[in-house]
């Protein structure tokens, strides 16, 4: 392919235009034009990593394989046509134009289309481990522990050289400067980082009582899935769940999730967020104490002002003790006169009431002779009434007895009637109730008859 770009060298390789230097922007522009003209639009296969979605809708990510990686950009007018949502760890084929970002001199691909070819190996391993541990119940929400509201001492598992360690210290210094921190150092990236992180968590487990920690933070800054892979270690997840104190995981950024996040009691979006969770109680208490202090100060001001006003009013009413004694003497004399007059009026009213009661008692005194005569007359009338009632009751009783005698069965039989019973003793009320040839008993006023039924007539 013929290169149409004019390079600053002649055919012998010597600089064209001796002594002339080109600017960096010119160099980058020439490199971009050379790349775009020499390499055609092509498909590139790799795994998505470090994916960022800009507010404008553009996608920025890295396409990588086991040995190399390249930065990629996909503009909004292309990304919004995708039939799927790209994610970190996803394996794709990218139809892209090789170019150079002139402002930074970055070699990159301008991606026009993506097609999904499967998830990356690391992401697949992440999903398999997550499913395995979830099946074992390692991520059971019921096993999650609440964070202490006011931790006495804080443990942190991270690298002392990591930015996450500085973020945690800065956050605690700002929100809870009194809170002591114990560092359990471990590398946060590398081949054996997962195992060493697990050892650090187990070390915090063993020394929790001696060190006095009651909350543990496991933190690291953001990065690609490879950078964060140490936090997807199975031994680390099991060490976190076995830790006797609650564990907060603050690994990566808002969109990064690791196995450690699922195993921890609480996940924070960032290391700073983990430190904020650990100091939330003290931070809230500080704000509350500030409110209480302001309220107390305002209350004291109101109290002092109120007492000052009372003092001023009392000072206005303050008089000389001799004058106060004179006023009290005059008031006592007036009260004595009023009391004597009131007692005199009260005694007069009591005497008048006593006289009225005496007259009423005399008027209501009973006449014993007359009442005795009245009782004698009432006794005679009561005796006569009793005799009359007894006589009427006796006459009524005799009448009822006569009626009863008239209705008695023996009286009925004496008038010529009889009672006929069959052999079982049942009373026969109709001729058809008797059995021909059967025995019947006939009860008369005096005696009984036994007979054999020869015939019946209805």
TrEMBL record:
Main enzyme class: hydrolase
Reactions the enzyme catalyzes: Exonucleolytic cleavage in either 5'- to 3'- or 3'- to 5'-direction to yield nucleoside 5'-phosphates
Residue ranges of every copy of the OB-fold nucleic acid binding domain listed in the record: 22-114
Its EC number(s): 3.1.11.6
Coiled-coil ranges per UniProt: none
Cell location: Cytoplasm
Domain Exonuclease VII large subunit C-terminal intervals: 138-451
Keyword tags: Cytoplasm, Exonuclease, Hydrolase, Nuclease
Assembly: Heterooligomer composed of large and small subunits.
NCBIfam families, per the entry: xseA
Similarity comment: family membership: Belongs to the XseA family.
Function: Bidirectionally degrades single-stranded DNA into large acid-insoluble oligonucleotides, which are then degraded further into small acid-soluble oligonucleotides.
This protein's name: Exodeoxyribonuclease 7 large subunit
Source organism per UniProt: Aromatoleum toluvorans
């Amino acid at each position: 392919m013929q290169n149409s770009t004019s390079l600053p060298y002649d055919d012998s390789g010597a600089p064209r235009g001796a002594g002339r230097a080109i600017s960096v922007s010119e160099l980058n522009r020439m490199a971009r034009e050379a790349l775009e003209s020499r390499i055609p639009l092509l498909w590139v296969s790799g795994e998505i990593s470090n994916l960022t979605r800009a507010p404008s809708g553009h996608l920025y990510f890295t396409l990588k394989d086991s040995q190399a990686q390249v930065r990629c950009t996909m503009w909004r007018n292309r990304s919004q046509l995708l039939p799927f949502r790209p994610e970190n760890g996803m394996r794709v084929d990218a139809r892209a134009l090789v170019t150079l970002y002139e402002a930074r001199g970055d070699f990159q691909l301008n991606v026009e289309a993506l097609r999904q070819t499967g998830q990356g190996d690391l992401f697949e391993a992440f999903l398999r481990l997550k499913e395995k541990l979830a099946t074992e119940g390692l991520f059971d929400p019921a096993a999650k522990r609440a964070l202490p509201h006011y931790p006495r001492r804080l443990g942190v598992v991270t690298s002392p050289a990591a930015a996450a360690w500085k973020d945690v210290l800065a956050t605690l210094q700002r929100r809870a400067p009194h809170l002591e921190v114990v560092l359990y150092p471990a590398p946060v990236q590398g081949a054996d980082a997962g195992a060493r992180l697990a050892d650090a968590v187990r070390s915090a487990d063993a020394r929790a009582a001696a060190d006095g920690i009651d909350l543990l933070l496991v933190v690291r800054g953001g990065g690609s899935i490879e950078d964060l892979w140490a936090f997807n270690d199975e031994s680390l997840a099991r060490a976190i769940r076995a830790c006797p104190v609650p564990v907060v995981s603050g690994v990566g950024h808002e969109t990064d999730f690791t196995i450690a996040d699922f195993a921890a009691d609480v996940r924070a979006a960032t290391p700073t967020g983990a430190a904020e969770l650990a100091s939330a109680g003290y931070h809230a208490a500080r704000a509350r104490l500030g409110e209480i202090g302001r309220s107390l100060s305002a209350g004291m001001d109101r109290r002092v002002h109120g007492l000052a006003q009372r003092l001023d009013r009392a000072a206005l009413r303050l008089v000389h003790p001799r004058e106060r004694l004179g006023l009290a003497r005059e008031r006592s004399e007036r009260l004595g006169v009023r009391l004597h007059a009131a007692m005199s009026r009260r005694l007069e009213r009591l005497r008048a009431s006593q006289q009225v009661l005496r007259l009423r008692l005399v008027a209501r005194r009973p006449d014993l002779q007359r009442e005795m005569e009245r009782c004698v007359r009432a006794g005679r009338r009561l005796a006569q009434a009793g005799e009359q009632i007894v006589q009427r009751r006796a006459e009524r009783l005799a009448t009822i007895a006569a009626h009863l005698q008239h209705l008695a069965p023996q009286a009925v039989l004496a008038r010529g009637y009889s009672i006929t019973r069959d052999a079982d003793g049942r009373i026969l009320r109709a001729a058809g109730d008797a059995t021909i040839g059967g025995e019947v008993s006939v009860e008369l006023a005096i005696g009984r008859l036994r007979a054999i039924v020869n015939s019946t007539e209805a």
